[in-house]
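Everyone, describe these structure tokens:
***
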Amino acid sequence: MKSCIAPGLLPFVCLLLMLGAAGAWAQTDAAGATAPQSLRPAVAPPANARETDNSHQDFATYPLITDRIAQRGGINGNISATRTVEGALTQSTYQLSTDTPGTDIWRNYEQRLGTAGFDVLYQCEGDACGPTFLRASPGYRAAGSLFDRPLSAQHYIAAQRTDSGGDVYTSIQTADTDDGVVIQVDTLRVKPREISAISVNAEQMSQELNTKGRVALYGIFFNTDSAEIKPESKPTLNEIAKLLTDRPDLRLLVVGHTDSRGSFDYNIDLSTRRAKAVVDALVDEHDVDRSRLKPWGVGYTVPRASNDSDIGQAKNRRVELVVW
């Protein structure tokens, strides 16, 4: 990085020049104003940034870093420090020739995210990001040669915005280089789920239990990497309660399933806690006799599809009811 300090240049003038450089931002993304909203980054890059790479996936499973990265093994070794989100993913890599430090570019992004209605989920600089942050970072995963810089050069922020069009998540990483700053902006847009398309009513559950002895449910939603049941799960919980009312002699195993990301023990624990949360909700909110329900977690030991694809992983994340 070049120094802003030059003979005869007053410190406050130097500061104004730095802020001016950081404040020069494009009004549209590098793809241009005509790019569909789903293909644009959450916030536009600096006006003089050069886009070196761009990719888009209509559906992706994305590990958003939300905590300090301290374990080896990249993302897979630090799954508990991430939030898994799914949706349309746009990834953009930029190079910026500037005397402005990466920390100033990063702070400007932080301000612009706030103006755009985003809430910061996690942010860090240098050592605060964790000793093994680099190889797990979005910049290194997308453009390893550009972001392979010392930890002291790294800056990171993750943010979320919720509106009527669905949640938007973004991770922004900047790193200082000899020629300026490199920037990685990953944006994932989550469309609201169509509950009616994945809900199963009590009659359908009963038929599946009669013919197969079990039924897979995809209408129970949890906050990422937690056992907290989301409000949109209510229709499915209501139908399970109706099933148990209609069939008073029925006893059920409530079995939690996960995909294969993360360690075996982690997923067994997560699936068990989620199964218990479903049982607790049925008992506490629907007056179901607890003795009729048994929670059980099997992690990723009983997949319905290959975990090698995003679609397969989505099929494997489920709650099943099994006749007991």
